[in-house]
Amino acid sequence: MGTKSWWSRTDNRRLEAALGLATVFVGVFGVLLPVLGAVGLIDPVDTREVKAETTTRVPGTVTDAVAGHGMTLTGTHRADLVFAHPDLSQRLLLALPEVIGSLLLLVVLALLLQMAGTLRGGDVFVPKNARRLSAIGLTVLVQAVLSPVLPALTTEALVSGTPMADQIPLSVTFTGEYVLLAFLILALGEVFRRGTKLRADTEGLV
Fold first, then answer.
1. Which terminal CB of the chain, N or C, has fewer other CB atoms within 10 Å?
2. Is residue 28 part of a domain?
């Protein structure tokens, strides 16, 4: 007597549709629009949140800031670095962290879509999915490292040689959540790999 699976084809279509929509959303808003802004085809990103050493607006006045280096720093410890008219290199540096992060997220979504496709055959425990989970884990680990490093390095490049450099120290803060998530996914991928190998060995004995 067979048992009816709780996962239906409709559920699989909904999952693939949700992942597909998420992929389109990230591609448009996380990659396409920032890139178009960086090359000047649409309004670019002109603000970067930074950690400032003082509660101030530098240098001197807003007029001085715009006339001098085209940037102002306003706020408290968490301040906004605003560019009045960013040039191409500044636009690229402002957009780079978001674009790289979104590209890594697109890699994860693409791998999840491939895994969802295996559900059509009714079996997600296949060797390819073990490799995909490992790839997802490594991608999340890379994102965990780049997420704090890229904004810090690009901000340093943006303010280098300007009065802002003294107000905005190089600051990188790592958090353990994404690193832990990455290792959990890698561990799950290893479970998949060993499970599929064990099943293959068992079927070979039958």
1. N
2. yes
On whether residue 75 sits in a domain, the answer given is no
In a domain, 145, yes or no: yes
User: Token match 């559900």: residue?
Assistant: 119
Task: Label the pairing between strands 71-75 and 78-83.
Answer: antiparallel
Distance in angstroms (rounded) separating the CA atoms of residues 169 and 81 = 13
CB atoms within 10 A of CB 142: 15
Average pLDDT over residues 94-121: 93
DSSP letter (8 states) at residue 34:
H
Please indicate whether residue 64 or residue 20 has the higher confidence score (pLDDT): 20
Q: Which domain holds residue 178?
A: 9-46+87-205
Specify the length of the chain in residues.
Answer: 206
In the chain, the number of structural domains is 1
Predicted confidence band of residue 123 (pLDDT cuts 50, 70, 90): confident
Q: Give dist(CA 41, CA 34) in Å, integer.
A: 10
Report which residue type is found at 19: L
